[in-house]
Amino acid sequence: LRRPVLDPVERTLSRCVTVDDVRTAAHRRWPAGVRGYVEGGADGEVSLRRNRQAFSDYALRPFTLRDVSRTDLTTTLLGSPASAPLALGPTGYTRMMHSAGERAVARAARTAGVPYTLSTMATTSIEDVARDVPGELWFQLYVWRDRQLMRELLARAQDSGYRVLMLTVDTPVTGLRVRDAHHGFTIPPQLSPRTVFDMARHPGWCLRMLSGPMITFANINGDRGQTPSGVMQFAASQFDDTVTWEDLAEIRQLWPGPLVVKGLLRTEDAVRAADAGVDAVVLSNHGGRQLDQTVAPLHALPEVVDALQGRAEVLVDSGVRRGTDIAIALALGASAVLIGRPYLYGLGAGGEQGVSAVIGMLCDELRRAMQLLGVSTVEELRREGPGLVRRVA
Ligand code: FNR
Predict the structure, then answer these.
(1) 121 Cβ inside 6 Å of ligand 1
(2) Ligand 1, residues 48, 91, 281, 317: which to mutate, most atoms within 8 A of Cβ?
């Protein structure tokens, strides 16, 4: 007879085999508005769907009869060791997915030995995360209209010990998230019959939200400070549609450590970023949340890797859900992948334990994929990549 699992989080996670299972578990816990916010893409969600489709456009061609008894996922990311070619990308308003929020995600990342990127739009402050969960922390910056505020954020991240700065450049304006509009979704939630009914159907989520601190825009107003009415509107008003390469040059001057530019899809932009002295680029369409109908970042990858010739590391995100996805990205020349929604599913389903479970699943799947491909190290996977993967659609 199997020992009954009493802890509800443990019970939920023990039933999950894949990231998709964790996603289903998170969906059960989230009100429709939160579900829509996490899952939604922009406009017709073509970019969102294409991100997943892109991985099916490649086929793997494994080597056989090789000793794969000692597989090693460790690698180096921007000069620091990582236990896997994986980093947690920045996501805003994380405490809305679970009151444990950014600290829980950072802790799970630290335990797993992979970097965590705190978003400008975080609901826990730069200082609080660094103090409570010191480790390999990256900070994601948006160029705000208020440049002084942007410089302050950068200085605070540096003072708090964040090693890597990630500048997101695909957001001169916010994409139209149709699901949010349909749900009447706002942060903080505005009470209407619909939102009250929605939240009442998820009492666990409501109780956790009430027991934890309110969702605040921690990096702008102070963690315990006032919540501006309509946080999302405030943020939207702060995105700057005049940002140019000159801003990148200024940020390069201001930030002494590794600098990453996130949100590129064009080869000449990646080359120009390398010329400007960035250490890595992240090919990304923001998980399909900004411009709709874009090329999938995965499809942009081979040309960018070829053009950069190792002058900057190339990371990719948007649509990574399985270990084989990571294997394909690495075989196509990526140094690592970022994940966004997968760890939010983990957080929603089970707080820190859920995030750990998701990272664990992806690493186990990647290890198995490498063994079945006949490669033992991340370096070998990237070196043998051209022979291992073929585009079939
Ligand atoms: C994001 N993403 C994001 N990116 C960023 O640079 N700053 C941010 O604040 C956010 N916020 C955010 C919130 C939510 C709910 C999601 C789902 C995504 C984009 C994120 O970093 C990453 O590029 C995508 O999530 C990658 O795609 P997948 O893994 O979600 O498919």
Answers:
(1) yes
(2) 91
CATH fit for domain 8-386, picks 3.40.640.10, 2.40.110.10, 3.30.379.10, 3.20.20.70: 3.20.20.70
Quick check: 346 and 22 in contact, CB under 8 A? yes
Q: Write the pLDDT tens digit of every residue in 49-72.
A: 999 999 999 999 999 999 999 999
Distance (Å) from CA 286 to ligand 1 centroid:
5
User: pTM for the whole thing?
Assistant: 0.96
**Ligand 1 atom closest to the CA of 89, numbered from 1:** 21
Identify the residue whose C-alpha is closest to ligand 1 atom 3: 91
284 lines ligand 1 (CB under 6 A): yes
Does ligand 1 come within 6 angstroms of the Cβ of 123?
Answer: no
Residue 226 has what pLDDT? 45
- Any ligand 1 atom below 6 A from CB of 47: no
What value of ipTM does the predicted structure carry?
Answer: 1.00
- What is the domain partition of the chain in residue ranges? 8-386
Q: Which residues 6+ apart lie within 8 Å of 257 measured at CB?
A: 158, 163, 164, 165
32 Cα to the center of ligand 1, angstroms: 19
Pairwise CA distance, residues 389 & 380, whole Å: 13
- CA 91 to ligand 1 centroid distance, Å: 5
pLDDT tens readout for residues 9-24? 999 999 999 999 999 9
Is 42 near ligand 1, meaning CB less than 6 Å away?
A: no
